[in-house]
Amino acid sequence: MANPNPYRLFLSPRSPFARRVRLALRRLGLPVLEHPLNVLESNPDLEASNPLGLVPALILPDGRALSDSSAILETLHDLHGGIWPERPTDRIEVRQASTLATGLMQAAVSYFQETRMHEVPSPAWAQDHLMTVYRTLRYLAELRSDLWSRSGELTQAGWDLSCALEYLEFRMPECRDAIPPSLKASLELARMIPAFGETAPRI
Ligand SMILES: N[C@@H](CCC(=O)N[C@@H](CS)C(=O)NCC(=O)O)C(=O)O
User: Fold this and answer.
1) Are residues 108 and 184 in the same domain?
2) What is the total count of domains within the chain?
3) CATH code, 43
4) Atom of ligand 1 nearest to the CA of 67
5) 20-41 per-position pLDDT tens digit
6) Does the CA dihedral 130-133-99-192 come out positive or negative?
7) Neighbouring C-beta atoms of residue 128, cutoff 10 Å
8) End-to-end CA separation in angstroms for the chain
9) If you take atom 1 of ligand 1, which residue's CA is the nearest one?
């Protein structure tokens, strides 16, 4: 019988932050009702759960609302496990790699908003975010490969990196050639998983 109170997720099909949560819910096998939104419009249902008006927002089966993708992943790990490695020393490093990959998403989202959505873009501000993207890509390429995948399975950081790289290709195609081959390996691994294709950013 279907769970009468599945998780409910407010998302934008383009949001890399929503995507990391969608992928985690699928990996954990948790039933979820997805509510895709256009975040450029007013969304009273979303705002009733998250007054910041940001996606993702997750409604737990008991009705409590969670916002921010990283906080949502922490709660999913508290409730179900399976997001972070069991060993605390491993967890510290994978979580830090995940934080940097998520920061890469944020820099790319900010760059896109500045260059394509502001009436008068600031070239200096956009350039600063572009440099952040390049610097972070170089830094991430130096990290140990087992932070991204172990025994052929992506870690949470590997999923986040894959979402960030595909978002870069989607919104900042000028950065495509700057993605180091060692990082592309995670993206190739993610692309073999159907859920990754099902949650790809689309217009
Ligand atoms: N730190 C937040 C960032 C969420 C975020 O910025 N979401 C964007 C979509 S990519 C959004 O909802 N934007 C709507 C708006 O700015 O009004 C998270 O990790 O969930």
Assistant:
1) yes
2) 2
3) 3.40.30.10
4) 20
5) 999 999 999 999 999 999 999 9
6) positive
7) 14
8) 35
9) 68
